[in-house]
Design goal:
14 helices; mainly alpha; 326 residues; two-stranded antiparallel ribbon
Amino acid sequence: MKEDLINGKKNEKFINIFRSNITFVNIFLFAIFLFTIFSIFVPQFFTVRNMINLSRQSSVDVIIAIGMTLLLICGEFDLSIPGIISLTAMVLALTLKAGVPIVLCILIALTLSVLIGFLNGILSTKIPSFIASLGLLSVTRGFSLYVTDGRAIHALPDSFLLVGRLELLGIPVSWIYAMIILVLGIIISRYTVFGRQLYALGGNRDAARSTGVPVNTRIVQTFIIMGLLSGIAAIALVARLDAAHPLMSGDAALNAIAAVVIGGTSLFGGRGHVIGSVIGALIISVLSNVFTLMSFPASLQGVILGVILIGVILIDYLRVNISRRR
């Protein structure tokens, strides 16, 4: 009788864990389904060369999605990511072309992205982050166009290109960067006071403030993290492409939001997981990769991404309404 009671409690605990992670389980199974279908029906998809290319291309989306997850969990947005990436990339390329040591170039680029994130956070404590980040997107893109007269910068030093093109045991180093950031994201969001406070901010900001959570400080810190990750993504992207363009990564913010919401993070804050967001980013990267392999028109890829984004937002809206009614 006692053993049956213990086993019953264990089964109930397992069922509760499964239910609490049902969104994550569904998106994981969907990702496996897509991967299997494309491996069978799309030529050249499941090849060593394409898998390496896919991991290298998806690393930037994964890095940005992790930062966007933390922002959405605490109920904030950042639409300035394309501007941060483009301005950071242009400054990085210009300093490299000027003969500045590579390490110093990278530090300058990361410092710039962190400062932009800090400014974004300060503004977002005063006005809605949607408006603040949209304004900064215009400012950073404008500076990118101004400092380069709208021209791309090519032919960067070969020693710098190793930052994004080096492979370790056949694994692109940019993917290793992404996995390290993923581990850090899991630790920060799930096992630190900072992470728990982000969930509290997204769940009920007034209640979080009344319990002593430094709301404005946490918002600024989260935007700083997003700025830093955008800078890292810019460095990896420039090293992979051997070029910097003032309008590069124009769809980075929308891709990140789509990936994060596909992965189960709520646009209304208070719920999400970086692992789900990474899976969402991989799904979007796989779709883009398949479209390229099938010579699908690039213009229609944006249409499909927009439809996906609208769909997942509607699903998230319905999911939140259903949970509130319960």
